[in-house]
Amino acid sequence: MKINCFKCEGESLRIKQCDMDMDGRVEACTYKLTMECISCFASHNIQVSQEHYASAMSQLRKGSDSFPKKIFISGPMSGITEFNRPAFNRAADRILSKGNIPLNPAILPDGLTEPECMDICMAMLRCADEMLMLSDWEKSAGARAEFAMGDKLGLPASFIREVKGL
Fold first, then answer.
1. What is the largest CA-CA distance in the chain?
2. pLDDT digit string (tens) for 29-86?
3. Do 27 and 40 meet the contact criterion of CB atoms below 8 Å apart?
4. Which domains does the chain have, with CATH numbers?
5. pTM of the predicted model as reported, rounded to 2 decimal places
6. Is there a contact between 124 and 65 (Cβ–Cβ < 8 Å)?
7. pLDDT in tens, 124-160
């Protein structure tokens, strides 16, 4: 089933044609799904899949400074005093101070196994728009795995380098 989504642009009207499944969910759009398209669907009581909604939000965030970015913090934790939480929390504070949303693995409670932590971190990473890699991340198998996943997802990465002894 095909539907049209209309958007006013000044004097003109732009049309997007989208495919819907039998349950009324959008399957594919001729053009990239945007928030305007989602708003149009909502006004016609048409459901948009979570995947398409997330894709639209991600595209909008990448092209706009007005949306807060979700930034995943990655770095070494195992074998470090306090699991390196102070460094993670400083990074989270920095992210918040810029109006963005930190996705901070250091907030996970004690008592989880390493595989459970990595499972949660990978879910957080899949929600992220960017990554922030803490100093010495290369020495951590978990952080290297997160970096590889972020790279595969096309997430841009920033790196913090701490100068020892200062």
1. 65
2. 544 455 555 555 555 555 555 565 566 566 555 555 557 899 999 999 999 999 999 9
3. no
4. 2-62 (no CATH), 70-159 (3.40.50.10400)
5. 0.62
6. no
7. 999 999 999 999 999 999 999 999 999 999 999 999 9
Cα separation, 112 vs 147, whole angstroms: 21
Q: Which two tokens stand for residue 51?
A: 């995947």
* Residue that is written with structure tokens 């044609």 in the block: 17
Token pair, residue 164, equals 């020892």
Residue spans of alpha helices (H) in 63-140: 85-97, 114-127
* Rounded Cα gap, residues 147 and 143, in angstroms: 6
- Structure tokens that stand for 138 in this block: 């290369």
Residues 147, 158, 109, 114, Cα dihedral to 10°: 20
For the chain, the C-alpha Rg in angstroms (whole number) is 20
Q: How many alpha carbons fall within 13 Å on the CB side of residue 166?
A: 4
